[in-house]
Amino acid sequence: MSGASVADTALTDPDLRRSIAATLLPGFVGTTLPGWLATRLRAGLGGVCLFGQNISSAAQLRELTDAIYAANPEAIVAIDEEGGDVTRLYYESGSPYPGNAILGRLGDAAYTEDVARRVGEELRRAGVNLDFAPDIDINSNPDNPVIGVRSFGSSPEVVAEHGAAWTRGLQAAGVAVAAKHFPGHGDTAADSHLELPVVDVSAEQLRSRELLPFRAVVAAGARAVMTSHILLPQLDATLPATLSPAIIEGMLRGELGFDGVVVSDALDMHGASGTRGIPEAAVLALAAGCDLLCIGTENTDAQLAAIEDAIAAAVAAGRITPARLAAAAARVRSLAESVAPTAESAKNAHDTPVKRSLFADSMEGGLRGEDVAAAERAFDVSAEAREWLAANDGRYSVVRIDTVANIAVGTAPWGPFAEVEADPGTPWAREFAANPEVLFTEGDHPDLVLAAQSPVLVVGKDNHRHAFARAAIDRLRAERERVLVVDMGWPSDDRSYADIATFGASRLVGRALLRLLGHDS
What is the pTM of this model? Predict the structure, then answer.
């Protein structure tokens, strides 16, 4: 048979095409299942990935996931729900959970497991069966622009303990974990959504630090692991981790003994496809050992066709062996079968009490008081901040410093502003909102911040990482009395721009900050 005939056969063979389809996990636009995606699901597409833009309400979400399962009863329905700043279920209101950095600071693994179980129960009711969480990157670089408070901490041991607890809790609820981002995205100063970060460390350094949490979650039974689009030149000088056989097959499979599903981070990110395109990134990811390919957020039928054709051509050319493709498809199908929705879970999803508990804006009583109190205990409050709080009567000017959020976090409401927006009728929301507010963003004239009159409360995220935020805070401190600076991100080690560090900016953490400010007594 000629080479052309082999290629033609690979492009049209139905079993091969079905195996290729099983490895793909696209996103889509809208809150209802598009017809082209339903057709692909019926033809064996591995599943779909949901984002905030796909969700408008609890009822709508369950209708959407029901439609997905009607097209493919063994589909993977995946989501990024980290239980903190990165949220999809609560993208319109802000998360009612504390987030990883706070959980790590609290140091209570049982509480971490409980939070994860509750997240898992909500996901299960919503029809989601794979969660791209926990984030078990060690945030060893306080200037990290993409991990930060998504991490349980800067200590490998803390991250390992809480990553394993989160894994146990989520999977106890019947939702599979995809721990991320292998082999560790914590020591980066670049965002792989926008560029290719380089982590120039040896394999031994990885083994002594970054790999400890991954060993812990594998031991805890993690069903999936997500790769990172970072270049580790001492392990592979040319290919990022997602596309590197040395890192996936050699380290994750070989050294850690992981035999579950390897999921790629989104291939539309620059770190994976910026110089080669998504179809070629998909080919390289499969060849390297990835089983399930997260494609992106707004994929189309034509785009998936191009990816499938590229993979089929790679099989015909011998770049991907049939055995490698078959193994990937089998792992995905096995995972999907094990977490497929049951008749009981579908029934529960349509019970009114379950729906009422699914989203923060419809929960009875809103946020849980014990979670609010726990988040506040994790705050780092300086002596100067204690003096400011003791002298304040609840009246001050608010300077809100808005920075561009990384793509993983997106534009979900954050901090006390999320709480005020979600529950404006409460006394604490009314008290806080009654104070004059100045919104300050990059590009605004520095004089704008001086519209705030003393005393001043400054609220931002990762203040130390942004020159315009540092300049604004310096200006206020020089020209106004009694300035209190709150950092709701990951602060610098010296806390120079964080009189109060909250280590998270979810809606829950915003309520905890209002309570500390005296508005929730």
Answer: 0.92
